[in-house]
Amino acid sequence: MTHTAAPAHGLSAELVSRRAGGRLILDGVDIAPPPGATVGLLGPNGSGKSTLLRILAGLLAPATGVVTLDGHPLAGLGRRTVARRIAVVDQHAVTQVDLSVLDVVRLGRIPHRRAWSAPDRTDEEAVADALRRTGLAERSGQSWHTLSGGERQRVQIARALAQQPRELLLDEPTNHLDIQHQLDLLALVAALPVTSVIALHDLNLAAMFCDRITVMKAGRVVAGGTPAEVLTEELIEDVYRVRAVVTPDGPDGRPSVRFLPRR
C-alpha cells in the first residue's frame, strides 16, 4: 500500500502497529477519514478493527507509528483535549448504577466541565440537543435498566453527541440489534455532521450507509475507497473466504452483496 502523508485537519493514523501476547495485531496501518465522512471499517474477526479504533481514540498506544489530530500527535495532547474532540461508542455498555437516560447522556459533558462543577446552560443545551437528535427527548426520565439493546445503543450515541465531538468512533454498534434498529441507528450516524468511523460486519449495511470503506485483513489495510470501488467479488473471496455476487443495484449505484453457498 502506498504511504501518504497525514492531512493537516482531522484524525489520522500513519504506519500504526501494535502487538499483544506476542502476536502482531496491527501491521503498519494508515487511515485518514475525510472530514465529515462516514467510514466503514470492515474485516473478519481478528483483523484488528477494534484495536485500531482504540488506538484512534487514544485508549491504546501504538508500538510504532503515530496518530494525529489536526496534525498534532495524539499522545502529546491531554486526555481532556482528546475527549472533547473524539467520542467512542463501544459494543456493550453496562452499568450497575440505576441511572436515567438523562444521567447517562449528561456523562458526555464531563470533558467540558471543571471538576465538581454543576452543569451550566451550555451543558444542558448540548444534552437536550443530543436527546432530540436521537429521538430520546421523551424518554429522558426512563431508567437505563428498562431499555432494550437498541435503545441503549441510541442512548450511548446521545451521550457521545453530548460531547459535541468532531470525530465519532463506533465499534460494531449494530451487533445484537434487529434489522429495524440496525437501519435506524446507521441512518442516524450517517446523517450526523461529524467524521464517523464504524466497525461493521454486515457488508450490505456498510454499502448502504458509508461514504468510504476501509477493509482489514490480518492486521493490515488491504483496500480503501468508495463502496463501489472496494466491495468486489474478488476482495470478498480473498478477505472473507466466501463467494458472493456483487451488483450495483442499491441507491445511487451502491453495491449489493449476495452470498453464495459454499462449494
TrEMBL record:
Q: Which Pfam families does the entry mention? A: ABC_tran (PF00005)
Matches recorded under InterPro entries: AAA+_ATPase (IPR003593), ABC_transporter-like_ATP-bd (IPR003439), ABC_transporter-like_CS (IPR017871), P-loop_NTPase (IPR027417)
This entry's Gene Ontology molecular function terms read:
ATP binding
Keyword terms, alphabetized: ATP-binding, Nucleotide-binding
Please list the residue ranges annotated as the ABC transporter domain. Answer: 11-243
Does the record bear Nucleotide-binding in its keywords? yes
| Segments traversing the membrane | none
Q: Which SUPFAM superfamilies match?
A: P-loop containing nucleoside triphosphate hydrolases
Question: By what name is this protein known?
Answer: ABC transporter ATP-binding protein
